Amino acid sequence: MNYDGFFSEDVGSFFRSPVREIFKRVDLSKIYSFAGGYPSAATFPIEDIKSLASEVLSKYGDKALQYGATQGTPELRAAVAERCGVPVEMVQITSSSQQGIDVCTRILVDPGEVILTSNPSYLGAIQSFRSYRADVVGVPHDTDIAEWEKAWRKAIGACIDGGKKIKFLYMIPDFQNPSGETLTLQERSLLVSLAREFDFLIVEDSPYRELRYEGEAVPTIFSLAPERTLHLGSFSKIFAPGFRLGWILGATELLDRIYVCKQSLDLCPPVMDQYMAAEFLSSGRLDANLAKSISLYREKRDLLLSLLERYMPEGVSWTRPEGGLFLYLTMPEGFDSVAFYDKALDAGVAYVAGSFFCTDGSGRNTMRMNFSFLDADRMEPGIRILSSLLKSELLK
Ligand SMILES: Cc1ncc(COP(=O)(O)O)c(C=O)c1O
Predict the structure, then answer these.
(1) What is the largest CA-CA distance in the chain?
(2) What is the pLDDT of residues 9-24, one digit of tens each?
(3) Is residue 247 classed as helix, strand or coil in its secondary structure?
(4) Which atom of ligand 1 approaches the CA of 245 most closely?
(5) Same domain? 239 vs 305
(6) Does residue 332 share a domain with residue 245?
(7) Angle, to 10 degrees, between the axis of helix 376-395 and the axis of helix 337-346?
(8) What is the distance, to the nearest Å, from the Cα of residue 52 to the centroid of all Cα atoms in its chain?
(9) pLDDT at 36
(10) Radius of gyration of the chain, Cα coordinates, nearest whole angstrom
(11) 3-state SS class at 32
């Protein structure tokens, strides 16, 4: 049967994640994978989770297995509110921060309207934006703030001249996926002043914020402009992604629309998971586990940086993230990381081509590398293979 005539117009704008396609093709345990954004399995607090399940069932009984409030359980909302220093009314629990991105787009954007973002940006967000037929406009980061402001003004001006409404700016200010970069306070303040001047909202996506390995935390965009920012948090990288739990902080008027929208999406976030996360957080076990994850990831980041320094051929440069799970490699102009990918995979190494994160097909000479997933003792052989392949490719 041909089903084509049955699909909605939105379906035509869906596109498959090239990252997930990579995972379907290979057995991750058999290759040197710098590709996915998976946390290290060593950070999963399995023994804690076993006892949390039993503590929650003893404490809450059948309530833990019943439907719950759409906003999230009062216990988890209160725990997140306390951690983030906001009133509980400004917290909505989500079934993952990916859902947070999707639900914000769903309540705010009509087809053809503009979402501004960095270029490159998080692929899962671009997928969501395109699925609502938004016009995604990416602006590359420029460390010269005057030049960066010019680039934003040019992009915003072009939207306005084209009669397009800008609904929000989507940014990952801490340890960005894919670049690993962190925005300075001055850069965050510039984005807030542009949002106020041109009257758009900001969606601040911060799943990596708590994974800082050096330096001082920079204030969130939400703290600079709580009235026009929806701040997304996630338990995926500080607890376990299998729980599929996140949160949104925002003005109650915005959260109320998200609340109604979520009634038709999933009725409520997973209840048992929320009770366990709340217990994990309020008992201090989350912070203890996070401290261990941070020290593991710091070592892995340092190891990857030293291996790149040692083995990469001339002409290759990379970012030095202060936290998060990724760094970003730039090869000389003309190199094609999409075409090179099969060679690398045949030799047993995986990465994600940078152009998959770009809003305009640029970034062919870049790649994203993850340092959380691969065991430390497998990093050196992986980098040696990748750099020797790159050497021969760049000499061609
Ligand atoms: C920037 C960013 N936002 C959101 C997500 C999705 O996270 P979650 O597991 O909470 O859906 C990811 C996952 O890698 C991410 O990198």
Answers:
(1) 66
(2) 999 889 888 777 777 7
(3) strand
(4) 10
(5) no
(6) no
(7) 130
(8) 27
(9) 87
(10) 21
(11) strand
